[in-house]
Design brief:
By secondary structure, the protein is mainly beta. The chain has one domain. The strands form two sheets. Strands 1-6-7-4-5 form a five-stranded mixed sheet, with no helix packed on it. It has a two-stranded antiparallel ribbon with strand order 2-3. A hairpin with a 5-residue loop joins β2 and β3. 13% of the residues are buried.
Length: 84
């Protein structure tokens, strides 16, 4: 089941301004664990996680790891009415 999680619930910002996952994660076939740290501009599975710091992530929790399935937009936008 896919659920929503805030970025800071899945990643921590380290003292040297790098990021580390708080849990084992998988994104686009690439696995990362809590011992991995990375800086802005580095990407894993084609994703630069620094660009997602203020976002909510769509995840699927498998117990021993979570898989990131997508990113939610900054704000909810209702569909615009179309005039006929």
């Amino acid at each position: 089941m896919i659920s929503s999680i805030r970025f800071d619930e899945l990643f921590q910002t380290n003292k040297n301004n790098s990021l580390s996952p708080l849990r084992n994660i998988k994104v686009n076939g690439t696995s990362l664990g809590p011992r991995v740290s990375f800086f802005a501009g580095e990407s894993f599975g084609g994703v630069d996680f620094f660009r997602l710091k203020d976002k909510s992530l769509a995840i699927e929790d498998y117990g021993s790891y979570v898989e990131i399935r997508g990113v939610y937009n900054d704000k909810f936008e209702e569909p615009k009415e179309q005039n006929e």
